[in-house]
Amino acid sequence: MANRVFFTFHYQDVIDFRVNVVRNHWLTKPDREAAGFYDASIWETAKKQGDIALKRLINGGLDNTSNTCVLIGSQTYARPWVRYEILKSFKRGNHLFGVHINSIKGKDGLTKWAGPNPLQYVGVTFSASGETATLWEKVGDTWVEYSKVDDGASYRFQVSEQYRGKGFNLGNWYPVYDWIGNSGFNSFSTWLK
Predict the structure, then answer these.
(1) Domains (ranges, CATH) in the chain?
(2) Residue 53 contacts by C-beta under 8 Å, 6 or more apart in sequence?
């Protein structure tokens, strides 16, 4: 059965066409089952209605998804809503993974250097008891608590002993692929959980 995948990305990469290559590659497969996924991502139309409307739209888009794919362009790591979508996905237990898309030719026919991994700019710390987790984001060179997901940065969580009292950036846990270098057209369904 095909997975529901939430794609998070910088909207400029939609304009440049790279995001569309990944999100629409299922169109050239025999069916959705062969592609392995349904696209549950959203567009940024709610931006005009404010932050609360956009959060509702994102949260609704994440409903019934099991995977969140971070489409990594040049500036994706710095986008506030990408960080929200990553940390909201982590909190709800989605499998996260990144896909570098700058190796895909843009509408100008050119490729770009790989952008920074957004998963390296968000993280989590676990209490010594393992019963709470606190979300973080990297702003400049400093890690600050991320309180934009639900009721603040800290929430109830149960983690195994090896993680208790420690902090991690999410880039240490989740894989990152390159659409061209790792044959995303043929491999995407194997990256899902």
Answers:
(1) 3-116+171-191 (3.40.50)
(2) 46
**What does the DSSP 8-state code read for residue 99?**
E
Residue 60 CA to its chain's centroid (Å): 15
C-alpha distances out from residue 2 to 63, 124, 188, Å: 15, 30, 12
Measured over the CA atoms of residue 117, residue 91, residue 155 and residue 126, the dihedral's sign is negative
Q: How does pLDDT run across 44-57, given as a tens digit for each residue?
A: 555 567 788 888 88
Mean pLDDT across 85-101: 96
Distance CA 108, CA 32 (A): 29
Distance CA 71, CA 83 (A): 12
Mean pLDDT value across residues 14-24: 90
> What stretch of H or E contains 87?
helix 80-92
- Whether this model's pTM surpasses 0.85: yes
**Bridge partners of 143?**
138
Res. 31: pLDDT tops 80: no
DSSP output for 135-159: EEEEETTEEEE---STT-SEEE---
Does residue 36 contact residue 2 with C-beta atoms inside 8 Å?
yes
